[in-house]
Amino acid sequence: MKAPTFLARHRWNVLALAAGCAATVAVTVLVWPDDGPKPPPLVPAMDYSGRARLCLAFDDDDRSRTTTATARDVLHATANSQTTNIQELAIPVSAPKEASSYLAGLVAQHCNLIIAVGPVTANGVPALTAADPTLRFVLLDSPSKVPGSTATVVDPQDLTKVLTEQITAVSSPALSH
Fold this sequence. Notes:
This protein is an alpha/beta fold. It has a domain at about 50-170: Rossmann fold, CATH 3.40.50. About 40% of the residues lie in helices and about 15% in strands. It has seven helices and five strands; from the N terminus they run H-H-E-H-E-H-E-H-H-E-E-H. Helix 3 packs across helix 7 (about 160-170).
């Protein structure tokens, strides 16, 4: 008579071990924590070098807040349909004499159009337009005429229309500063 093989002697043990492993795998799969919602896909890199640059400079005065918000909305709505880059810069009300330095920084970054909101921001425009009359400024919420400036001063009721026209004109790829 032949001796029973290992499997024949321990078949119930092997069967129990296999069933235990299968149950462990099944439970692990069922209770494994979900990673939650999947992150949005990465935005593909784009070449921004040939785009027009639109800059919004505003003072941090509460009186200009509504005009700044309206200008920002028009800027983003119009620029989104164009191929433009948008940049914003807040100028402290406590530094009216340094406004031209802040604006010169935007000029150095090759802004094709600078939308300046508020009287503090408007103080810096004449020095820059005197140095380079080809600079394009649109002044909002500022005095009706800024002495020594070639900037376009916009009445509040024409804000949306004039800004849209100015942004569309500057967004042409042929224009650059």
